[in-house]
């Protein structure tokens, strides 16, 4: 599951969302991971929005 944090670090929203789909079963089974992923997705989305401005 290393590709998930790697996509977050590179601020690649498309890859991040693809990795979430790829590892959906593993990630959805843990509430702590779900909270962390929501936070990371928000940060990646904000970073992409900042780049586009």
Overall mean pLDDT stands at: 78
The geometry reads as globular
The stretches of 5 or more residues where confidence is low (pLDDT under 50) are none
Largest sheet: none
Number of domains: 1
In whole angstroms, the N-to-C terminal distance is 31 Å
Strand segment count: 0
Oligomeric category: single chain
Tell me the structural class.
mainly alpha
Count of alpha/pi helices: 4
CA radius of gyration: 11 Å
Residues in β-strands, percent: under 5%
Succession of helices and strands? HHHH
Which range best describes the helical content: under 10%, 10-25%, 25-40%, 40-55%, 55-70% or over 70%?
A: over 70%
Overview of the structural elements:
With 53 residues, the chain is mostly helical. The chain has one domain (3-52). 83% of the residues lie in helices and 0% in strands. The protein contains 4 helices and no strands. Helix 1 runs antiparallel to helix 2 (13-22). The protein is globular and about 35 Å long.
Q: Could you give the topology of this structure?
A:
Elements: H1 3-9, H2 13-22, H3 24-28, H4 31-52
């Amino acid at each position: 599951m290393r590709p998930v944090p790697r996509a977050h670090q590179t601020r690649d929203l498309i890859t991040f969302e693809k990795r979430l789909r790829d590892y959906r079963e593993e990630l959805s089974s843990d509430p702590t991971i779900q909270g962390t992923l929501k936070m990371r997705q928000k940060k990646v989305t904000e970073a992409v929005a900042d780049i586009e401005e």
